[in-house]
C-alpha cells in the first residue's frame, strides 16, 4: 500500500507543466477534496476514476475513499483493481480546502447525473469556485444512475456561475460544447426555482 505525505508534493502544485508528478499530485488533491467534502468515518463511493493502467489499458474502476480522524488520514481503494493508498499531512497544503461537509447525499434536494468528461471539466473550474460549488464537484458520487452531483440550489448556482465565467473567458470548442450542455441541464434540475 502506498503511504503518501501530501506535504512532499507541495512544490509540484505550482508547476505549470503537467509532468507525471504534478498529475499525480492533482489526483491526490482530488482524493483529498472528496474526503474533505464528507464527515470522517463512512466510505465515500467517489466519482474519481482510478489512475492505474494495467496492461496499458486504463483501469475502469473508481475509488472508494474514507477519511479518518484518528489517525488523521485519508484512504483510497479502487473497486476494480484494488489499488490502495493512504494520504497524510494534507493540513496546511494547497489541497486543504476545508469544504462544507453537508448536505449528505440523502439530505440534498437536487441531483444531476454527469459524464466523466463533464465532471473533469468541472474539476478544472474548482480553483476560484465558491466553497458550496467546489464542495458539490468534489463530493460527486457513483450512484446507480452514474456519476452524480448532489447538492442544494446554491451549489448548483455557484457551479452554473463558474461555467458562465469560463465560457466568457474562452475555452476550447470541445469544452465549450460540453459546458453549454451541462449548463442547460443544471438549469433544468433547479427549474422549479427562480434562479434563471
Ligand atoms: Zn483501478
How would you explain this protein's 3D organization?
37% of the residues lie in helices and 21% in strands. The protein has 196 residues and is of the alpha+beta class. It folds into two domains: 2-88, no CATH class; 105-189, no CATH class. A five-stranded mixed sheet has the order 1-5-4-3-2, covered by helices on one side. A three-stranded antiparallel sheet has the order 6-8-7. Strand 3 and strand 4 form a beta hairpin. Helix 3 (116-125) crosses helix 6, helix 4 (131-138) packs across helix 5 and helix 5 packs antiparallel against helix 6. The longest helix is centred in the N-terminal third of the chain and has 17 residues, at 20-36. It is globular. It starts with a strand and ends in a 7-residue tail after the last helix. The relative contact order is 0.13. The structure holds zinc ion (ZN).
- Which structural class do the helices and strands define? alpha+beta
Distance between the termini: 48 Å
Largest sheet: 5 strands, mixed
Strand content: 15-25%
Look at the structure and give the mean pLDDT: 91
The tally of structural domains comes to 2
Q: Measured on Cα atoms, how large is the radius of gyration?
A: 16 Å
Task: Summarize the topology.
Elements (H helix, E strand, L loop, with lengths): L1 E4 L4 H4 L6 H17 L7 E6 L12 E7 L4 E6 L5 E5 L21 E5 L1 H10 L5 H8 L2 E3 L2 E6 L1 H17 L3 H17 L7
Parallel strand pairs: 1-5
Antiparallel strand pairs: 2-3, 3-4, 4-5, 6-8, 7-8
Amino acid at each position: 500500500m502506498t503511504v503518501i505525505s501530501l506535504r512532499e508534493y507541495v512544490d509540484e502544485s505550482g508547476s505549470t507543466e503537467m509532468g507525471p508528478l504534478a498529475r499525480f499530485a492533482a489526483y491526490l488533491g482530488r482524493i483529498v477534496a472528496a474526503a474533505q467534502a464528507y464527515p470522517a468515518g463512512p466510505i465515500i463511493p467517489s466519482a474519481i476514476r482510478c489512475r492505474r493502467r494495467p496492461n496499458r489499458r486504463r483501469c475502469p474502476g473508481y475509488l472508494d475513499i474514507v477519511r479518518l480522524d484518528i489517525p488523521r488520514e485519508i484512504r483510497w481503494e479502487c473497486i476494480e483493481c484494488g489499488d490502495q493508498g493512504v494520504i497524510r499531512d494534507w493540513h496546511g497544503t494547497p489541497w486543504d480546502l476545508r469544504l462544507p461537509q453537508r448536505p449528505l447525499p440523502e439530505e440534498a434536494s437536487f441531483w444531476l447525473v454527469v459524464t466523466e468528461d463533464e465532471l473533469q471539466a468541472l474539476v478544472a473550474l474548482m480553483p476560484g469556485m465558491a466553497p458550496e460549488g467546489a464542495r458539490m464537484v468534489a463530493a460527486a458520487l457513483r450512484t446507480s444512475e452514474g456519476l452524480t452531483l448532489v447538492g442544494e440550489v446554491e451549489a448548483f448556482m455557484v457551479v452554473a456561475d463558474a461555467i458562465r465565467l469560463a465560457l466568457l473567458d474562452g475555452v476550447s470548442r470541445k469544452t465549450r460544447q460540453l459546458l453549454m450542455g451541462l449548463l442547460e441541464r443544471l438549469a433544468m434540475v433547479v427549474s422549479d426555482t427562480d434562479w434563471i
